[in-house]
Design goal:
Blueprint: H1 2-24, E1 42-44, E2 47-51, E3 56-66, E4 71-81, E5 88-101, E6 104-114, E7 119-123, E8 127-130, E9 133-136, E10 139-143, E11 148-152, E12 156-158
Antiparallel strand pairs: 1-3, 2-3, 3-4, 4-5, 5-6, 6-7, 6-8, 7-10, 8-9, 9-12, 10-11
Length: 163
């Protein structure tokens, strides 16, 4: 019985995201434009502690990252920079984390963005919203270049018909 319930929830979630992606047209659920090397990522905060040797930046207090594909806000953020390219490799955000990408909004207590696969992993009471539709779970992986979300454990989906 549990297997059928899980299959039903998984099928419903897939259908929900597929229908929403088709309904939203260019502003698809999670998909965003390809990265441009001409647009910088801007980070602001109350305090910065930068380790030049290891290329690790610790931002503390009212941290805001404005990237061409998303905006992330948090209480604290650690940013790891790739030595060869001087680009952001990974971002670890903690505290009250808020993420927006297109029409998608997410809140959680911890988020990790990995530029290599353009993925955000959100944990600690994660909630993702698009319009009136809401999905929660213990852990969520969001791929910003794709229409793909993987939600693990204690999954709940609240979908408004026709929205």
């Amino acid at each position: 019985m549990r297997k059928k319930t899980r299959q039903y929830i998984a099928s419903f979630a897939i259908a929900f995201f597929a229908i929403n992606a088709l309904a939203t047209g260019p502003a698809e659920l999670l998909k965003s434009e390809k990265r441009s090397r001409d647009i910088p990522t801007v980070i602001t905060s109350n305090k910065l502690d930068f380790d030049y040797e290891n290329l690790v930046a610790l931002f503390d207090g009212n941290v805001v990252v404005k990237d061409q594909q998303f905006t992330m806000k948090s209480d604290r953020m650690i940013i790891f920079i790739e030595k060869e390219t001087n680009e952001i490799k990974r971002v670890d955000a903690s505290g009250k984390v808020y993420l927006t990408s297109g029409e998608m909004e997410a809140t959680c207590g911890k988020a990790t963005y990995t530029r290599k696969n353009n993925q955000v992993l959100i944990q600690v009471d994660p909630v993702v919203k698009k319009g009136d539709n809401v999905i929660t779970g213990k852990k969520m992986s969001i791929w910003l270049d794709e229409e793909r979300v993987v939600v693990e454990e204690s999954v709940a989906l609240e979908a408004m018909p026709g929205k």
